[in-house]
């Protein structure tokens, strides 16, 4: 009887502990959502060593509208003189003849960017792998400061991943908007990645 009475007295304490944990988790996620949203509306473009274009879909060597938007924005930054090198990134999907990086390279060449101002990175099937491969190529060349170009909802995560792989980055998102669903998905990725590291998160998906 005594032990049953003690158990009953402890149950409310555990309930409050669980509720407190849930409340803290909710606050953590909401803060990350606010950070993702704020980053999606901030353009930090400034002079750098290179402009890095995050990969997106390509269709037999032709950039998808999403990738073309990123490449066009990178070209604008390049023409403004913010960096002298553009780095299109991205591997290929199974069955593809071309990589996202090559599609970006070919597109920028067709828009007048000379070959010596382009550095193509074709390794990496996700954002972490792309930026890790980019760091492996840029840092030995002493190209540490970069402008990252991606879609707005992606801004916070690419910035944090760049820091994790050793790049000194700012983010200049494209002009496209972000849907609520995209912001929610990014919030989930950021919330987990900040706890377990983005390197580990990338190995799970």
Report a brief summary of the structure.
By secondary structure, the protein is an alpha/beta fold.
Using brief descriptors, characterize the structure shown:
alpha/beta; 7 helices; 205 residues; 10% strand; single chain; two-stranded antiparallel sheet; Rossmann fold
Estimate the mean pLDDT confidence: 92
Low-confidence stretches at least 5 residues in length (pLDDT < 50)?
Answer: none
Oligomer: single chain
- In total, the number of domains comes to 1
Distance between the termini: 51 Å
CATH homologous superfamily assignment: HUPs
- What radius of gyration results from the CA coordinates? 21 Å
Order of helices and strands: HEEEHEHHEHEHH
Class computed from helices, strands and strand pairing: alpha/beta
Strand content: 5-15%
CATH architecture: 3-Layer(aba) Sandwich
* Number of helical stretches of at least 4 residues: 7
Largest sheet: 4 strands, parallel
CA-based shape: elongated
Quote the CATH topology: Rossmann fold
Side-by-side strand order of the widest sheet: 4-1-5-6
Q: State the helicity in percent bands.
A: 40-55%
What is the CATH C-level name?
Alpha Beta
Task: Tell me what the structure shows.
This protein has 205 residues and is an alpha/beta fold. It has a single domain (40-204), classed as 3-Layer(aba) Sandwich (Rossmann fold), CATH 3.40.50. Helices cover 55% and strands 10% of the residues. The chain contains seven helices and six strands, in the order H-E-E-E-H-E-H-H-E-H-E-H-H. It has helices at 2-40, 65-79, 100-110, 127-138, 155-165, 180-196, 198-204; strands spanning 50-53, 58-59, 62-63, 86-88, 145-149, 168-171. Strands 4-1-5-6 form a four-stranded parallel beta sheet, sandwiched between helices. Strands 2-3 form a two-stranded antiparallel sheet. It is elongated and about 70 Å long.
């Amino acid at each position: 009887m005594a032990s049953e009475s003690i158990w009953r007295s402890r149950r409310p304490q555990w309930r409050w502990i669980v509720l407190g944990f849930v409340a803290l988790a909710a606050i953590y996620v909401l803060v990350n959502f606010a950070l993702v949203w704020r980053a999606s509306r901030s353009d930090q473009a400034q002079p750098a060593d290179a402009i890095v274009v995050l990969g997106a879909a390509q269709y037999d060597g032709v950039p998808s509208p999403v990738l073309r938007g990123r490449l066009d924005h990178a070209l604008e930054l390049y023409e403004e003189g913010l960096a002298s090198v553009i780095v299109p990134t991205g591997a290929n999907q199974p069955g593809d003849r071309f990589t996202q990086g090559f599609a970006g390279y070919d597109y920028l060449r067709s828009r007048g960017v000379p070959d010596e101002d382009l550095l193509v990175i074709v390794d990496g099937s996700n954002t972490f792998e792309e930026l890790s491969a980019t760091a492996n190529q840029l840092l030995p060349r002493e190209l540490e400061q970069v402008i990252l170009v991606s879609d707005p909802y992606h801004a916070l995560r690419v910035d944090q991943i760049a820091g994790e792989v050793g790049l000194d980055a700012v983010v200049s998102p494209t002009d496209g908007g972000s849907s609520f669903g995209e912001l929610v998905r990014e919030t989930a990725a950021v919330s987990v990645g900040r706890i377990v590291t983005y390197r580990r998160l990338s190995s799970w998906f």
